[in-house]
């Protein structure tokens, strides 16, 4: 990863964010992205290899693992992080597009180019883009929280699961690798996602309230 480019990108997003947006970005970067990269991937690296069932029937372990883990936590979190950070990039793309358009207009007219958006100020199309990005980010986190809840009841993993799917010869016990550690990381990611949802909604309410006062 090009950390210099990523740092410039973060500084660009922060430039047009409110205080709530800066807290949200720090929370995503420190408590979600870094935890995912540094720790979570290693915790789930052995989920299939160390998933054991008390039978040697060929195919039984694979079928039971696929039933109880239809989608890996890691892949779901990766998709969630990608989707939840994309709206912030749209804000930067919106500013870059409008400023490039302004440069072309002034270049054709022979005037001096000016910045149509001041850092920290949101008006016109940028205000709508920023507000929609907040609602989209909150919606993505809510949808993934629901998906996790549907796949893994109460966001927790049991120590032992009982499987009776074909080709298992009967009801077999299957053991999950390090379920306690995985439950801790799962609850941590769920809590941080909930905090991010609250921050996004609070920031959206702040923007709408500020606009109403100005009007």
Automatic annotation (TrEMBL):
A Pfam family reported for this protein in Swiss-Prot or TrEMBL: Connexin
Keyword tags: Cell junction, Cell membrane, Gap junction, Membrane, Transmembrane, Transmembrane helix
> Its topology with respect to the membrane?
Multi-pass membrane protein
Q: Keyword check for Signal, yes or no.
A: no
Stretches that traverse the bilayer: 20-39, 77-97, 127-149, 184-208
InterPro entries, A to Z: Connexin, Connexin_CCC, Connexin_CS, Connexin_N, Connexin_N_sf
Which SMART domains does the UniProt record give?
Answer: CNX (SM00037), Connexin_CCC (SM01089)
One GO cellular component term of this record is: connexin complex
Q: Which residues form the Connexin cysteine-rich domain?
A: 140-207
List each copy of the Connexin N-terminal domain by range. 42-75
The main place the protein resides is: other
What GO biological process terms are annotated to this protein in UniProt? Answer: cell-cell signaling
Q: Where in the cell is it found?
A: Cell junction, Gap junction; Cell membrane
Q: Which GO terms describe its molecular function?
A: gap junction channel activity
The record's listing under PANTHER family reads:
CONNEXIN (PTHR11984), GAP JUNCTION BETA-5 PROTEIN (PTHR11984:SF29)
Family, according to the entry, reads as follows: Belongs to the connexin family.
**Complex and partners:** A connexon is composed of a hexamer of connexins.
Function in brief: One gap junction consists of a cluster of closely packed pairs of transmembrane channels, the connexons, through which materials of low MW diffuse from one cell to a neighboring cell.
According to UniProt, the name of this protein is Gap junction protein
Q: Please give the organism.
A: Serilophus lunatus
Read off the lineage from the record: Eukaryota, Metazoa, Chordata, Craniata, Vertebrata
């Amino acid at each position: 990863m090009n950390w210099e480019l990523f740092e410039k990108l973060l500084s660009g997003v922060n430039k047009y964010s409110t205080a709530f947006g800066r807290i949200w970005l720090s929370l995503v970067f420190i408590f979600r992205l870094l935890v995912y990269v540094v720790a979570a991937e290693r915790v789930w690296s052995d989920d299939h290899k160390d998933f054991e069932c008390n039978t040697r029937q060929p195919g039984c372990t694979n079928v039971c693992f696929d039933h109880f883990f239809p989608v890996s936590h890691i892949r779901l979190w990766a998709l969630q992080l990608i989707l939840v950070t994309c709206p912030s990039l749209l804000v930067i793309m919106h500013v870059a597009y409008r400023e490039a358009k302004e440069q072309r207009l002034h270049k054709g007219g022979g005037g001096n180019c000016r910045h149509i958006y001041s850092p920290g100020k949101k008006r016109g199309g940028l205000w709508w883009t920023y507000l929609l990005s907040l609602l989209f980010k909150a919606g993505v986190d809510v949808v993934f929280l629901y998906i996790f809840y549907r796949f893994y009841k109460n966001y927790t993993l049991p120590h032992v699961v009982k499987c009776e799917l074909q080709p298992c010869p009967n009801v077999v016990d299957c053991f999950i690798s390090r379920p306690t550690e995985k439950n801790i990381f799962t609850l941590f990611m769920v809590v941080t996602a909930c905090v991010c949802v609250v921050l996004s909604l609070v920031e959206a309410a702040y923007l709408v309230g500020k606009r109403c006062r100005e009007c």
